[in-house]
Design goal:
Elements: H1 6-14, H2 23-32, E1 41-48, E2 60-64, E3 75-78, H3 81-89, E4 94-96, H4 98-105, E5 113-116, H5 121-125, H6 128-131, H7 149-158, E6 160-164, E7 170-177, H8 182-198, E8 209-216, E9 222-224, H9 226-230
Parallel strand pairs: 3-4, 3-5
Antiparallel strand pairs: 1-7, 1-8, 2-6, 8-9
Helix pairs in contact: 2-8
Length: 231
């Protein structure tokens, strides 16, 4: 752990590490502890009582945040020419096929989401070594391999995110920006937690949602009472 700045130390002192805060208290604290020179992201970490090594306990899915993430999402659509206009009309930042396959082979990944169609998934699949580690590989489960590329682009631009549990049983997601008001952050957090509850694997035993933590980039972690977020 590097040296904490004076600001970070002062913010950490505002948060009781042993206390579990209501959602509204937690989001207000996240905002109060984030007076940095940039509009920081607000992130959630949810520890689940699942064993991600077991295929029937893998939790992954998508959620449409009611108020978006606050980020500008750069979208690449890799498709045949007949789908290019639909993708452009929906607001895709980059649209094409072989030129982008070649750019990615050369190491270019200057996008946040890649959407493609089943017909060209064979070509995109060959890019696994570049796209896989960066979490950019399109996947039918997250709606990024689809014939309906226009809707997929609009959904992503409007705040649809995908998530999956990591090997430690934790789901990480961005739920907005510090500049959002408390109500908007609360809505987005509740949407993520509600979605996770609906995705609870039948084979998961014991406590499912073990802990919820909110923090902003560079801000301290704040424990959240999930009951208050799911009410």
């Amino acid at each position: 752990m590097g040296q904490l700045s004076k600001n970070q130390k002062a913010y950490a002192e505002k948060v009781d590490p042993d206390k579990v805060y209501s959602l509204s208290e937690a989001t207000a604290l996240v905002k109060a502890c984030s007076n940095f020179k940039f509009d920081a992201s607000v992130d959630i970490a949810v520890r689940l009582g699942v064993d991600p090594r077991k295929a029937n306990q893998m939790v992954r899915g998508t959620v449409s945040l009611p108020h978006g993430t606050g980020k500008t999402v750069r979208v690449l659509v890799i498709c045949n020419p007949d789908k290019e206009q639909e993708a452009k009309d929906a607001g895709a930042d980059f649209v094409g096929l072989d030129e982008y396959i070649d750019k990615i082979k050369g190491g270019w990944t200057d996008v946040d989401v890649i959407i493609t169609t089943p017909q060209v998934m064979g070509k995109v699949g060959a890019l696994g070594r570049v796209l896989g580690p960066r979490g950019l590989m399109p996947n039918p489960k997250s709606g990024t391999v689809t014939m309906d590329v226009g809707k997929a682009v609009q959904d992503v631009k409007a705040g649809k995110i995908d998530f999956k549990v990591d090997k430690y049983g934790i789901v990480h997601a961005s739920v907005g920006k510090v500049s959002f008001d408390v109500e908007k952050l609360n809505d987005n957090v509740s949407e993520v937690l509600g979605t996770l509850m609906r995705l609870k694997p039948a084979s998961a035993k014991g406590v499912y949602m073990m802990s919820v933590c909110l923090n902003s980039t560079m801000g301290p972690g704040i424990k959240v009472d999930q009951k208050s977020a799911l009410a």
